[in-house]
């Protein structure tokens, strides 16, 4: 086997034949040309063999060992006599007018999953701008938004704080049946949401059977406007969070009023857990605290009773009855720790009760929050929302 054939096998781009290889300390330049005899004219699509002139095109390809590889392709400029048109031959391994091969672009894309554009640029010896262009173009190719939207029936709407400590939220849409990310929107304003969903068309809006969301006016109004046929469910994750906050505020009061009582210490996470999930040690701790504060016991068991309603009601109607009885009992026992929760409850009881219809939960978006966080970590200086969106969607694909 001659040297050129060995290089050709190593290069693994079958459409090329190699004419010369220049190996330097840090680079390899591979001079080559395509083996195609004719090119289809972009205008009349006839096969053209008439070459007007040759020129060199240099393309960055994957490294060989530590050396950067450059393909120096002897390109043919063709001339179609039917159309009087000049055009360059096309390459099956690189896009028109790009200075890197498809597989090099793919490599940059893979690197950019975990590293900033600047770091990738340094690794492959190009500019951060080029890396950014490559990554965004690849993302746009990978994301199949029409398919994502066409198959969703149960929709989750949630948010993620964009910048730490600021009231700056992006909105996260999820496909609850698949537990996957659907899309992200730049904020959680009503206008943004309504415009987005209406823009997807009537058939999309009509196919939605359930919407699960947090208690946020814009979500509820949007769901009523865009998906009037859908069942609106307040996400259990958030409902449980409010409940636990009520229990926790009571615990804090106890700690304040009886600072030296050791039984109230380190109780926060024990109280957050449901009774049937507690260990023997945790049950003992709980019993000691309950012995000192019967009121804490009442608060804890009221929280458990609410879980019981969500877990065991067989219909929305029976859940509503259960919620009403629960509210009456809390009032009767003067458990003021639940005051805030009860206020929200009276406004949202139907949406909370809808949970029993098919137990949808948005909890999947908690995992997606981590995904977005990891993208943000690597996307230093990525202030453009569309860019963030493309990267998050491509990674979740
Ligand atoms: Zn032509």
Number of domains: 3
Overall number of strands? 12
The ordered string of helix (H) and strand (E) elements is HEEEEEEEHHHHEEEHHEHEHHHHHHHHH
Bound molecules: zinc ion
Q: How much helix is in the residues? A: 40-55%
Supply Rg.
31 Å
Distance between the termini: 44 Å
Task: Describe the main β-sheet briefly.
Answer: 5 strands, mixed
The percent range for strand residues is 15-25%
pLDDT < 50 runs, ≥5 residues: none
Structural class: alpha/beta
**Taking all residues together, what is the mean pLDDT?**
88
Helical segment count: 17
Shape: elongated
Please outline what is shown here:
Helix content is 50%, strand content 20%. By secondary structure, the chain is an alpha/beta fold.
Can you describe what's shown?
With about 400 residues, the protein is of the alpha/beta class. Helices cover about 50% and strands about 20% of the residues. It contains 17 helices and twelve strands. Strands 1, 2, 5, 6 and 7 form a five-stranded mixed beta sheet that branches. A five-stranded mixed beta sheet has the order 10-9-8-11-12, sandwiched between helices. A hairpin with a 7-residue loop joins strand 8 (about 155-160) and strand 9. The two termini are about 45 Å apart. The site of zinc ion has 8 residues, from loops.
Strand and helix layout:
Layout: H1 3-11, E1 16-23, E2 27-34, E3 39-40, E4 47-48, E5 51-64, E6 67-80, E7 85-88, H2 102-111, H3 117-124, H4 128-142, H5 145-151, E8 154-161, E9 169-175, E10 180-185, H6 190-199, H7 202-207, E11 210-213, H8 217-226, E12 231-234, H9 236-257, H10 268-272, H11 280-292, H12 294-312, H13 316-332, H14 339-353, H15 355-358, H16 364-378, H17 385-396
Parallel strand pairs: 2-6, 8-11, 11-12
Antiparallel strand pairs: 1-2, 3-4, 5-6, 6-7, 8-9, 9-10
Helix pairs in contact: 2-4, 3-4, 4-17, 6-8, 9-12, 9-14, 11-12, 12-13, 13-14, 16-17
Bound molecules: zinc ion.
